[in-house]
Amino acid sequence: MTQIPDMKNFRVEPVGDGILHLAFDMPGRTMNVFTNEAIHEVEAFAEWLRTSDVAGVVIYSGKQTAFCAGADLTELSSAYDMIMAAPEAERDDLTVAHFSPIGRGFRKLETAGKPVAVALAGLALGGGCELALACHYRVMTDDPGTQIGLPESLVGLLPGGGGTQRLPRLTGVEGSLGVLLEGARFGAKEAVAAGAAHEVVPPGQEIAAAEAWIRSRPDASQPWDREDWIDPTRDEVLAVTGPTRENALKKTGGHFPAELAILDCLDNGVPVPMDQGIVAEVEAFKHLVQRIEPRNMIAVRFLGRVDYDKARRKEALPDGLDAFGEEVKAAMQGKAAELGDAGSAALHFAGIGADYTGDAASAQIIADRKPQWFVQPQGAIEKAALEIVQAGAAVARDKGQGFDAKHRNLIDYHCQQAAGYPVYLGGPFTFLDLYGV
């Protein structure tokens, strides 16, 4: 048997009967996340596993807090900057090369020919959930804090480690939509009922249950890799995703590309074999991750929200925050009033403190346009919308010097909540940095 690869983020421990424990335990962190380094370690371990003589593997968290909180979004934001700094002709290949190892590694794990079980205690979100779905057997504790979910759409992304392909194959397409599109989570009993997990046990018994399954000499393959598996037809998938897509377009005005990209993954990936499905997911991810909306949402809706919540708990929010938010709101509303009917329509078009209005066909055109409307506006309503968001950004230009630069994401998050600044545009500081006024 070849040497087990060196890993910094995972510990390998033989426990007898040929069973290996693989503990996800990132050094220096209280919570596991998937970094690029951790992703490559999974792939290296999966390649080793194929040639090994072990009876099976049990994966669990070495942390007391959770299994895995998802991707390292700070690292992902840096990857975006790296990709967009490259010549445009090279960006697609660069994106695929950087982001495909997670899907490739999980695929190698589930096809290594050895049974792999995961013992989940605590949250398994994003890449953590995708790793669990790539295991052949999933045990969850009945603690309320043990949940699985794929919240990528909430920050403008899609699950890029096979999540859009494995979850709907386990739960059915319709059963996966809440998790994929709305950030819903399955608790342990819900996961078993939906088909996303196999067993629920009391806390502390999950590893033993996973070991017992391996000792039962199970089939080391996923349902979709067996001869009796039948892929749904494209028409069957579209019967579910078609109405969902129409509703999403009406609800978002075409300004949130992640939901549409996830539906593309379902339409193009679920009706074909898994290897082709993984390719379809990477193709959709490649286009999505190069857009500005995910970067804005990661910076503000995730990192800014985290900073805001931490500061609020410590009663350390920046002085003048509420007044600043009110001034941004007043500036945008004042500009809308100045622009009359076009201004009123623009608020609804762009979702500036108002619900989106319009039909699905028009929203699809907005979603497909490149450059986006806020880069190259067309017509009176779009130009009015740009003037309105620029009015909010002008407040950041004129009044923002009084805030520490490290608080800008936090302040932008507050402006989304208090002033109705469009989530997909980040906030007044984000918009100011990208486009000026």
UniProtKB/TrEMBL annotation:
One of its GO terms (molecular function) is enoyl-CoA hydratase activity. InterPro entries: ClpP/crotonase-like_dom_sf, Enoyl-CoA_hydra/iso, FA_oxidation_alpha_subunit. It comes from the Bacteria. Pfam families: ECH_1 (PF00378). One of its GO terms (biological process) is fatty acid beta-oxidation. PANTHER family: TRIFUNCTIONAL ENZYME SUBUNIT ALPHA, TRIFUNCTIONAL ENZYME SUBUNIT ALPHA, MITOCHONDRIAL. This is Enoyl-CoA hydratase/carnithine racemase. The lineage of its organism: Bacteria, Pseudomonadati, Pseudomonadota, Alphaproteobacteria, Rhodobacterales.
